[in-house]
Amino acid sequence: MDIDAKPYRAFVAVAEERSFGRAAARLQVSQPALSAQIREFERLLGFPLFNRTSRVVELSVQGRLFLGNARRMLFETEIARNTARAIQTNQLAIGATVQTMLVAERVNLLDRFILQRPDIPLRVANDTDARLRAALARREIDLALLIEPMLGGAVTYSPLDPHSASVTEIERLVLRRRRVEVLLPREHPASRHAVLPLSALKKMRIAMFDRAYGVALITAILQFVRSAGGTLTRPPERNALAVERYGAVKRVPAISLGWFGRSHLAGLAPMVSRPIEGLDAETGLVLLRAQGEGHPATATMWKIAAELASHRQPPVRGSTRRASTGT
After folding, report:
1. Sorting pLDDT into bands at 50, 70 and 90, what band is 36?
2. Most buried of 73, 158, 178, 225, CB within 10 angstroms?
């Protein structure tokens, strides 16, 4: 089995370099060997890939049509090679959104795994929620660590969410929940309340994050705030971290997920976080895995996460606590 897909790699290199000599140098093979490999590949395919002249190498019509497929083959081959390497070494691949780097529970979980199981190589991939869910479904990663919407104590998605169809195919472990609150400038009149009464929301304009955190959650917050006479506004950048910072910069109320402490607000005037009376909206830090059999390293991480979720252990000694949960 040619796990390196050498004929495809040779074809793409010549197509991109437009020169057999430069492609051979790039692949670290001799030019005659590369030419022979391309001729054999063309024989197997049944059509020419290049129009050869004495001065230039150009793709044939068939070669132009085939180039995209060849690149996809190389991409899939790289995934297969990485998967094979991970299986050989029992490597654990976990995906996490970049913003979770500021979540203490995420830091604690990875610290504990590294210290308890130094024999298991760990790779952490950072990407968006949607891409991580897709990678999990394709088994390109073993686990995903995400902040997910919760209503009524359960992870809740709307049929309008693009990944809602795959929700039932994923097993979840909720590590911790946090209620949705309002981040207020300390000088704001409403900050004197320990819990914001509905009357405090009347005519209040509150910066809001986008639907990436779940259509059901966004809708619940929107309807609740509107029913109390408030308005949700859309800042220029609408991820949860940016919305909190926008509120601190503009000195306006902002919806907060409550996960990120205050390190991203350093250098700005103080903000305080307040729950809203009657708002039953939360988010959870959730570890996800695809249903079905996984390799042993996945079960090991899941067990450590379950222990942390049960006991709420403090951070391991020597780890960097990146987030503060205080107001």
Report:
1. very high
2. 225
Whether residue 61 has pLDDT greater than 70: yes
Separation CA 200–CA 210 (nearest Å): 23
Report how far residue 164's alpha carbon sits from residue 156's, in angstroms, rounded to the nearest whole number: 9
**At a CB cut-off of 8 Å and minimum separation 6, what does 61 contact?**
none
In this structure, are 212 and 152 located in the same domain?
Answer: no
**Residue 146 confidence (pLDDT) above 60:** yes
Angle (CA) 170-176-177 rounded to 5° is: 95
Give the CA dihedral 4, 8, 11, 14, nearest 10 degrees.
-40
Residue 289 and residue 167 share a domain: yes
pLDDT of residue 153: 87
For residue 274, give its domain range.
Answer: 181-278
**pTM attached to this predicted model:** 0.69
CATH number at residue 29: 1.10.10.10
Please give the Cα distance from 239 to 211 (Å, whole number). Answer: 9
Q: Model confidence over 167-195: pLDDT tens digits?
A: 457 899 999 999 999 999 999 999 999 99
Do 291 and 306 fall within a single domain? yes
Q: What are the start-end ranges of the H helices in 159-239?
A: 198-201, 215-227
The residue to which tokens 């067990």 are assigned: 303
256 touches 244 (CB < 8 A): yes
Asked if residue 214 lies in contact with residue 156, where contact means CB atoms within 8 angstroms, the answer is yes
Contacts (Cβ under 8 Å, ≥6 apart) of 11: 38, 41, 49, 63, 66, 67, 70
Residue type, 103: V
Q: Strand 143-151 vs strand 154-155: parallel, antiparallel, or unpaired? A: antiparallel
Q: Token digits for 93?
A: 């691949």
Question: What are the structure tokens assigned to 135, written together?
Answer: 């990678």
Kindly report, residue by residue over 266-275, the tens digit of the pLDDT.
Answer: 999 999 999 9
